[in-house]
Recover the amino acids of this structure.
């Protein structure tokens, strides 16, 4: 199945931050609009370990896309031309920095309403927002809620931990700079982060 480009409609991020162990655990809910009823969607993310993915409340299969491995399997990567190899390495490094989580949308999730399993004010606002922005396509076949549970241990970027100074409490700062930043939000939460 081909991965489908998605448009983010709403996001909910619940994080537990442990500064002492430099660890984050979280659940991110993304309400997405796909251009058609998608069999597969891709969202951004890197350096965290995914523990569970649900689409409209239905458990889904997923994989972290490894652009370097995909490029290595291509015919162009096997050519011995030095300029081509150097160009391939630069492209592979750029792709690896981006990171993607590919999610298979289960068939029974396509007929379920877009929900993250929590029926609260935020979820209701997300549903209303999707309907108001997309009155002709805000049905379960085009609006999807993806929920990702994950953990992040000792991140290399995107999250910065600061030790306590005197009586102050230690803290962590989460990078959420400009969209498309490879050290931004995609380093600490699944998201749709376009350049």
């Amino acid at each position: 199945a081909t991965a489908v480009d998605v448009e983010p409609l709403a996001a909910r991020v619940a994080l537990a931050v442990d500064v002492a162990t430099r660890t984050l655990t979280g659940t991110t809910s993304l309400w997405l609009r796909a251009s058609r009823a998608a069999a597969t969607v891709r969202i951004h993310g890197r350096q965290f370990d995914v523990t569970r993915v649900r689409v409209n409340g239905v458990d889904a299969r997923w994989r972290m896309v490894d652009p370097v491995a995909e490029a290595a399997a291509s015919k162009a990567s096997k050519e011995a031309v030095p300029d081509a190899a150097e160009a391939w390495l630069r492209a592979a490094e750029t792709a690896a920095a981006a990171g993607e989580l590919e999610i298979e949308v289960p068939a029974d999730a396509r007929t379920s309403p877009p929900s993250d399993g929590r029926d609260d004010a935020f979820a209701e606002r997300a549903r209303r927002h999707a309907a108001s922005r997309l009155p002709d396509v805000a049905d379960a076949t085009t609006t999807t809620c993806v929920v990702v549970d994950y953990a992040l241990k000792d991140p290399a970027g995107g999250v910065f931990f600061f030790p306590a100074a005197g009586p102050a409490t230690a803290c962590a700062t989460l990078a959420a700079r400009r969209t498309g930043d490879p050290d931004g939000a995609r380093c600490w939460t699944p998201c749709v982060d376009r350049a």
User: Anything to note?
Assistant: The longest helix spans residues 82-98. The CA atoms of residues 104 and 179 lie 25 Å apart. Helices lie at 67-73, 82-98, 121-133.
